Amino acid sequence: MTASSRDALVDLSRQLGAPSQDAAILGEGNTSVRVQNVMLVKASGATLATAEPDDFVRLELPAALALIDDPRAGDDEVDALFSQVAALEGRRPSVEALLHVVIYAATDARVIAHSHPTNVTAILCSQSAEKLVDGALFPDQIVVLGAHPLLVPYVDPGIALARHVRTQLAEHIARWGQAPRVIYLRNHGMFALGLTAAEVLGMTAMAQKSARVIIAASCAGGVVFMPPEEVARINSRPDEKYRRGLLSLDRRDSTSQHRPRIEEER
């Protein structure tokens, strides 16, 4: 894990935690990057908006996966693993680090941003949470968030939530043939799964906009989703796939050869 990857993760975290994003306050949310079999993830208690390089810790993915796979493992075993990390890194990983682990194991994501955008969380705390996943409202929502986000019921954060999401991810991939780009957690928040920091930031912003549209449409007579065949068409169009790829690029990289970037998995 290079210094460049760590610096890029700090930059992502600060942007995600900025007040203008309305996505996280105080110690809410967490971010991570995966490089091969190692994950760099926000430490417990760190604040996204004021993140510093030492606010992130390394976690070996095979060790964490072995713990999740062990049906006998519970909170005590998680505490022991995180204490081992703290002994090496000086800080404990976020309580939701294990959820990052199962997402990396099941998808091709290289960067994950977990946040609690206010409008998204409002819907997740309502009787209308399914509106975030039951259909698409407008074309750019499909391009950025995908046609099939995943909605997960509330489960206590930690190893129980990680195992539950792993099961639902497997079912989702079997049904749709691909992993979701966004995972919504009822009464909690969202996870954006991407290849770059720019991509997950854009996904978080689009989820926030989509939530605002749902709230406004509900007040204006009710939500009307796009026809499913049109959603499928946009999701599979070559030009939209190309545009989706462009949206993952950080335009600032073209103006500065020295800007820190998250390294690709090799």
Order of helical and strand elements? HEEEHHHEHHEHEEHHH
Computed Rg: 18 Å
Q: How is the biggest beta sheet arranged?
A: 7 strands, mixed
If classified by CATH, what would the architecture be? Answer: 3-Layer(aba) Sandwich
**CATH C-level label:** Alpha Beta
GO molecular function: aldehyde-lyase activity; metal ion binding
Region (Disordered): 245-266
GO cellular component, one term: cytosol
Pfam family, one: Aldolase_II
Distinctive features:
single chain; 266 residues; alpha+beta; L-fuculose-1-phosphate Aldolase; seven-stranded mixed beta sheet; 7 strands; globular; Aldolase_class_II_sugar_metab; metal ion binding; aldehyde-lyase activity; metal-binding; Aldolase_II/adducin_N
Describe the model.
The protein is α+β, with helices and mostly antiparallel strands. The protein has a single domain (3-254), classed as Class II aldolase/adducin N-terminal domain (L-fuculose-1-phosphate Aldolase, 3-Layer(aba) Sandwich). The chain is 46% helix and 13% strand. The chain is built from ten helices and seven strands. Strands 3-2-1-4-7-6-5 form a seven-stranded mixed sheet, sandwiched between helices. The protein is globular and about 55 Å long. The termini are close together. The relative contact order is 0.16. Residues 251-260 have low confidence and may be disordered.
Give a short summary of the structure.
46% of the residues lie in helices and 13% in strands.
